């Protein structure tokens, strides 16, 4: 039995672009007769049959962008959608928003539905369960068939497509360094399990800041929160350690840390400083208001949409995948001590 091949396989073996293969198989006049014959002969030898869904996407434009988000309610993703919608509208596209509920099966099923002629391309933030299982077949199928795809926020390095991410390592470093500079000595972190890449990167930034300040990493001060269980109970264990600050990798964890601190009659920020992540309504209106890392979701949405539409319209300069990194900044509020000038 001959090996099953894709357009990318043919392009690689014959030393041509995937777009050249696609056009040759459609008998496009843009491709020379000699090149078309060579590509068709190779495809016939391996019994290559084009993916009908991919062809439908390429040949019948809907002027709709599909967006798949992990969660229905999340302030950060709402700002990303606003950025996507702005660029999409300016360039004549509409958007269709769906949710995976952080489930791998639902994510894969949603991709199948959207790529059945409903959209011209996809913007996706990967579900937690997909990252945990490491099952990326539904994404690799899109990539192999040259379907426009851009991953944002939650991505994976093994997937060869355009990505837009926050500098999570740098953000974790900035937050931890600020706590150190404000006089905090023993800093704990509330983070995600290791398979969630954004949490892992923020943890790496936290550890780097501590090492650069000459401190050793105390693993008792690292709490990886499993959201399938009671989050507050897990966070309370961190308060059993002699900490004077907490860096929380999202604003829910930060809000829970503030609640626990209040229950323990700790003064915020004099007894304990807290910095969260994502400048949402919780951070703004909590009491005390929460110092936080600002992710600039609107900018992420804009850049994600630009990359995807360029790909849809064939405006990419080359076929090398791009990763755009968006920097972050701190917004200091009542939950953390001020750094002395």
Could you please describe the fold and organization of this structure?
The chain is built from 14 helices and 12 strands. Helix 1 (7-14) packs across helix 2, helix 5 packs across helix 14 (297-312) and helix 9 crosses helix 10. The protein is α/β, with parallel strands linked by helices and 341 residues long. The protein has a 6-stranded parallel sheet with strand order 2-1-3-4-5-11, with helices on both faces. The chain has a 6-stranded mixed sheet with strand order 7-6-8-9-10-12, sandwiched between helices. The N and C termini lie far apart (72 Å). The chain has 3 domains: 7-50, no CATH class; 60-165 and 297-326, Response regulator (Rossmann fold, 3-Layer(aba) Sandwich); 168-295, Rossmann fold, CATH 3.40.50.
Return Rg in Å.
23 Å
CATH homology superfamily name of the largest domain: Response regulator
The CATH class designation of the largest domain is Alpha Beta
Average pLDDT level: 91
Low-pLDDT runs of 5+ residues are none
Write a concise synopsis of the structure shown:
The protein is α/β, with parallel strands linked by helices and 341 residues long. The protein has helices at residues 7-14, 18-25, 33-45, 52-59, 75-90, 104-114, 128-133, 137-144, 168-181, 197-212, 231-238, 251-263, 281-285, 297-312, and strands spanning 64-69, 94-99, 121-124, 149-152, 162-166, 187-191, 222-224, 245-248, 273-277, 291-294, 323-326, 329-331. It is built from 14 helices and 12 strands.
